[in-house]
């Protein structure tokens, strides 16, 4: 059963979470009952047969061995080679799951949520390398973090140390009531976004677009706008469910969206859209790449280093979505937009040609909105059909 | 120059703005003075000029957001 896709799922979840809410309001520890809820919901999600239950188990065991092995190793030694090897092995199942369909063999490596779970695992290895995770982690801690069911299928991607703080916390009744209130609020926002607005845009507009548009150009133009809005409401709706349920479980999962359509420029947009993913790439790919280049003094030119970082980040983000042409083009498009903006920003800092003021802010928002929507149009795959 | 002044000097150099020396509680990310690229530069400078190693993953924008907060964090890592 796909999470948050049917009312039955919500009803079962609601019943399972009732004791969690009562325990929380009474100020009791949520941990033990929540383990039961997690197992029950995971069983519900993965019992359908199409979600890849065995691949998930295999994946989890592999990641546990890699993480626990690397932490033990890191307590004694710290070779870069071992770090890169472990990171590669951790990402290998994800790479396989993307490549196998092209080899015309059964995609046995794939399961629901693999793209997101991989990032949770690799992140632990990276933070161990950086010396931020020093103590050995228990199987319970790792499994609980990696298979946290509210966010298992499509994120948000949490960070281990942040998650752990919430998980170990014993919420006071007043604090939990606040969490519960926020969580329920988010879930209702999710209903509004995903099942009302997103559903309406898709069913009444996108599916009838052939009759609404009066030509090829207007068809594609209207498709671009409506698909962009649909994508936002559908994904922001899912995220609101995932974050809302997390809150009820006593975990404050990070947010994914912060009003992305009022972004003033493309850089601003990536601080507002699918934030848990873009921040992951920022912290673990872009910043590490720039740091390496600077420290080893391989490339001195600032502009070149940051642009290469952006190109690396967005091409990776593209293929992370899938190896289909639309995702690769989407990644390349955003790499191009970011590097172009990078040149513009540096130039403007010097010459101050771009006027400021309220009107210009609106102009910037409108331009960015169109750049972003065209990106989603590419992402949708419609231009390649 | 004491430690605090040294840190402020490094931040001001990277941000290319002396305002951080005056307003020690200014949120440098919200003010647009520091982006992810400049953050890396800051981390490299802390290592080169102050000899303090800050792992990139440690530099959390919620707890390293103002000059004062950065000074506190660096004091913890010293």
Topology:
The complex is a heterodimer of chains A (385) and B (78).
Chain A: H1 7-25, H2 31-46, H3 53-76, H4 80-99, H5 114-129, H6 139-146, H7 160-168, H8 173-205, H9 209-212, H10 216-248, H11 266-270, H12 275-295, H13 302-321, H14 325-351, H15 358-380
Chain B: H1 3-15, H2 19-22, H3 36-50, H4 67-77
Structure description:
The complex is a heterodimer of chains A (385) and B (78). Chain A has 385 residues and is mainly α. Chain A has three domains: 31-168, no CATH class; 173-248; 260-384, no CATH class. In chain A, 72% of the residues lie in helices and 0% in strands. Chain A contains 15 helices and no strands. In chain A, α3 packs parallel to α5. The mean pLDDT of chain A is 94. Chain B is mainly α and 78 residues long. Chain B has a single domain, classed as Orthogonal Bundle (Non-ribosomal Peptide Synthetase Peptidyl Carrier Protein, Chain A). Chain B is built from four helices and no strands. Chain B has helices spanning 3-15, 19-22, 36-50, 67-77. The longest helix of chain B is centred in the middle third of the chain and has 15 residues, at 36-50. The mean pLDDT of chain B is 90. The A-B interface holds A 126-127, 130-132, 267, 282-284, 286-288, 290-291, 294-295, 302, 305-306, 309 and B 35-37, 39-41, 43-44, 55-58. Chain A: This is Teichoic acid D-alanyltransferase. Chain A: It is a multi-pass membrane protein. Chain A: It is found in: Cell membrane. Chain A: Belongs to the membrane-bound acyltransferase family. Chain A: Keywords: Acyltransferase, Cell membrane, Membrane, Transferase, Transmembrane, Transmembrane helix.
